[in-house]
Design goal:
The complex is a heterodimer of chains A (109) and B (232). By secondary structure, chain A is an alpha+beta fold. Chain A is 44% helix and 17% strand. By secondary structure, chain B is mainly beta. The chains are: A alpha+beta (109), B mainly beta (232).
Chain lengths: 109, 232
């Protein structure tokens, strides 16, 4: 196996690990909307009245990086374009083209 | 017995909730009651758009993707008559389409485009509350009363208006009972959830793209938690 293919495998595996470790989202994001527990203050009258008994969570939007499987935007200059697919596919294409070119060059000698 | 007397003495509820969309930017600045008749039926409670705990969340589940979004601000007011707990309530809750966020700016742009909610033509999503049904006191702690009820209203989204009914939990707390004064006046807090079908409102997504059903759910779950006060 060529060094190029080995490198491509390592890069792909690394990106998949990064994808999973940042949440495993489909699309690349720089902000997330997530459900978090409400931080109830001790003297919160609504808590005392039982308003939060059924559900004490709320959705908040905050800055956070999620490396996606797919790009969050189709534009090349958009920061959301980085993703597993947009890096891995060109990388493997380049490795395949280089490997093919080297193989043909070797056979032509 | 004592409890039921107190129930009659205090409130009853009317009103709440819900959703969405749009752009009619003048609503918050005007801060006017929905109508004189609505105000005449009881106390007007205002939703403070800047209060961080107000929350209108929409959730889509589809085979290719789950989407969670929220409205950055919610506007509106509701009324209820403390002397007539069963009289229901009225109100209007508004969300601007331009304030909807999903975590991906490009997707937010699509949401506002003419293929989806068309913020230019339909800048707001409105719930006009016309009444309540089945008001039932579920909890009373000191002066605070929590009610389960069904809210009835007209939900306007995109180019359609449909009657909706959905369960809600509403807590009323008179001003004197509140230790914290981050919000002034008596307090009405509500949470509720309901589901709408995009097809019912004429929302199809880009023609022929088949996005609804694959990337966007055919039904959208809307979860609302709102706080309104009688103070200004």
């Amino acid at each position: 196996m060529s060094r190029g293919i080995l490198t491509a495998i390592v890069v792909t595996a690394g990106l998949l690990v990064l994808w999973q470790s940042t949440g495993g989202d489909y699309y690349t994001k720089y902000e997330v909307i997530e459900e978090v527990p409400i931080e109830l203050e001790p003297d919160d009258p609504l808590a005392a009245a039982g308003f939060y008994d059924d559900n004490a969570t709320q959705h908040t939007r905050r800055d956070a990086f999620r490396f996606g499987l797919l790009p969050g935007a189709p534009a090349l200059l958009d920061k959301h374009v980085v993703s597993v697919v947009t890096i891995v596919v060109p990388y493997w294409a380049a490795v395949a083209a280089l490997t093919l070119w080297r193989t043909r060059k070797r056979h032509s000698k | 017995m004592i409890q039921s007397q107190r129930t009659m003495q205090y409130v009853t509820i009317a009103a709440m909730l819900t959703i969405w969309a749009g752009t009619a930017a003048t609503y918050a600045q005007e801060q006017q009651p929905i109508s004189d008749s609505a105000a005449a039926d009881g106390v007007v409670f205002w939703i403070d758009p800047s209060y961080g705990r107000n929350s209108v969340v929409f959730k889509s589940k589809a085979p290719l993707e789950d989407i969670v979004g929220k409205a950055e601000e919610v506007y509106g007011s509701v009324t209820f008559d403390p002397a007539r707990p069963d009289a229901g309530g009225t109100g209007e809750i508004v969300v601007k389409v331009g304030n909807l966020r999903t975590g991906i700016p490009k997707r937010d742009e699509h949401l506002r485009s003419s293929d989806w909610l068309d913020a230019e033509q339909h800048p707001e999503i409105r719930l006009a509350i016309s009444g309540t049904k089945g008001v039932d006191l579920s909890k009373r702690i000191d002066d605070a009363a929590t009610y389960d009820m069904t809210i009835v209203g007209e939900f306007a989204l995109y180019d359609s208006v449909h009657t909706v009914e959905f369960p809600a939990t509403v807590t009323f707390m008179p001003d004197a009972a509140r230790a914290d004064k981050k919000l002034t006046g008596s307090l009405l807090a509500a949470h509720a959830a309901f589901t709408l079908k995009l097809a019912d409102y004429g929302i199809t997504g880009p023609r022929g793209a088949g996005i609804i059903g694959s990337q966007v759910g055919e039904e959208i779950l809307i979860e609302v938690r709102l706080f309104a006060t009688s103070g200004k």
